[in-house]
């Protein structure tokens, strides 16, 4: 018996017989499925811890003043104010400070401080409108009396606002630090 004869050579311009699929090697000499190269993630820029903390503290003070003015204008305190204050502080800490593990804790503390200072500023605004007292009288030698008055005004609603500020300050700072 003789072996089958090889197929006749193909003439140019005639269709070529189908060849079995042979996978191509991956690009860039990397092993990857389907012949595509895997792409490495872009390196993250490290956050600037000092600038993040400075911006967070600045946002705390500015947010506390705004918080006091908003409470005075609305003559009420709403949980949205505490959330907005925590959001502003977390933006500064997380976006500029980066992923440092101390920043979410600092975000919670700054949010608590912002709500506290905002409430004190609200008390100052009310006392200034009703009695004409200046900031040196409220925050100076009579600070103890101001804090006693603040403590007497605290209720369960205020504890709720402090809780919102602390939790959201922590979570939002951690979230913005990841992005």
Can you describe this structure?
- This protein has 179 residues and is mainly α.
- The chain has one domain (49-178).
- It is 64% helix and 0% strand.
- It has six helices and no strands.
- The protein has helices spanning 49-74, 79-97, 103-131, 135-141, 143-153, 156-178.
- Helix 2 crosses helix 3 and helix 2 runs parallel beside helix 6 (156-178).
- The radius of gyration is 33 Å and the shape is rod-shaped.
- The model has no long low-confidence stretch (mean pLDDT 84).
- Keywords: Membrane, Transmembrane, Transmembrane helix.
- Residues 1-26 have a biased composition (Pro residues).
- The chain crosses the membrane at residues 49-70, 76-93, 105-127.
- Residues 1-28 are annotated as: Disordered.
């Amino acid at each position: 018996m003789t072996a089958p004869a090889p197929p006749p050579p193909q003439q140019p311009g005639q269709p070529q017989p189908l060849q079995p699929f042979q996978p191509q090697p991956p690009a860039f000499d990397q092993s990857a499925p389907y012949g595509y190269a895997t792409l490495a993630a872009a390196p993250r820029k490290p956050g600037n811890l000092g600038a993040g903390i400075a911006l967070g503290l600045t946002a705390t003070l500015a947010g506390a003043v705004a918080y006091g003015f908003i409470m005075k204008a609305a003559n009420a305190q709403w949980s949205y104010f505490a959330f907005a204050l925590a959001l502003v502080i977390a933006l500064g800490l997380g976006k500029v400070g980066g992923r440092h593990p101390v920043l979410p804790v600092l975000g919670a503390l700054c949010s608590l401080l912002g709500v506290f200072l905002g409430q004190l500023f609200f008390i100052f605004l009310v006392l200034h409108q009703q009695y004409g007292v200046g900031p040196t009288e409220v925050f100076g030698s009579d600070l103890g009396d101001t804090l006693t008055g603040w403590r007497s005004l605290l209720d369960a609603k205020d504890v709720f606002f402090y809780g919102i500020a602390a939790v959201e300050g922590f979570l939002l700072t951690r979230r913005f630090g990841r992005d």
